[in-house]
Design goal:
The protein has one domain. The chain is built from five helices and no strands. Helix 4 packs across helix 5. The longest helix is centred in the middle third of the chain and has 37 residues.
Amino acid sequence: MALQDPPATEDLLVAVREYLQEEILPNADQAKRVHALMAIKIMGVIERELSIGLRLEGEHEEALRSLGVSNEAELAAAIRSGSLDSRRDELLKVLRHTTASKLMVASPAFLDRAQKEAAAIAARQAKRADAAANG
């Protein structure tokens, strides 16, 4: 149960974002358009942080614990010391997930493009490997 009466924070952000997109952008000069687009992007980040941030934070904390550290400073120290060298695959999985989680909030469109590009690269590599094996 929320302390605040409706509308919820998320609803307020959506209303302001929609107003900027529908009312301000179509009539804005170039300078105001840039500022409105920046504000829209920031509101999107805040909306995503509110909607998925806690879940992603919990997943991140669990992933760090799986590596035997409790925060990113400890993770960095463990990487520098080489204590995670024997767990390289697990470490890379955690680092990839951490990066993807951050991009889910900050720039989901960039994450989507990066994932598609990575899949295309993997497909090309598999095709080359298959061609070499069947040579």
